[in-house]
Amino acid sequence: MRARPSWFLVVLLLISGLLPAQASRLVVELVTGDSHVYEIDQITAMTFTPDNFRVRTHTQGRLFPVADIAAITFLWTPTGIDDEAAEAALTRISCLLPNKPNPVSVYTAIAFDLPRSGPVQVRVYGVDGSLIRTLLNDDRPMGRHTIDWDGRDTSGRRVANGVYIYRLTLNGIDECRKMVLVR
Fold it and tell me: Coil, helix or strand for 42?
């Protein structure tokens, strides 16, 4: 079975009622940069298959291929989350996106979505686990962020061609992805 994208958990939590939904909107952002906004109280159904996400409202329906979705965001009026399980679930939702371009020749952009403000680390490691460079070690607000890597280590030296791992650490949760450096 194929792994679900990280935004899939947010959708499931909202549907199950674990996340509060007051004055809510669903925003589907596509990799092309287009966005589709739906009022939650107008949505009659949301369907997932391994390849597609479908949103139906009282007046229309839309099918989104999963490969075309960059992010799914829920916007609501903050009233606080009373339920500890919902708080814990929200804390664990983040999304480390694929770096672009990959393979890397000169530089690459590493993007990630944060479900809440807080301390964030983005680090690059060699396949042997050695730390190559810390790209970010700071507080960031909720939302999408991008940081560039120029193929250099902490000392400013160009690193060798090969496979590298970039790692996002947020709220005690780690997400990793691979990238290839080819000059």
Answer: helix
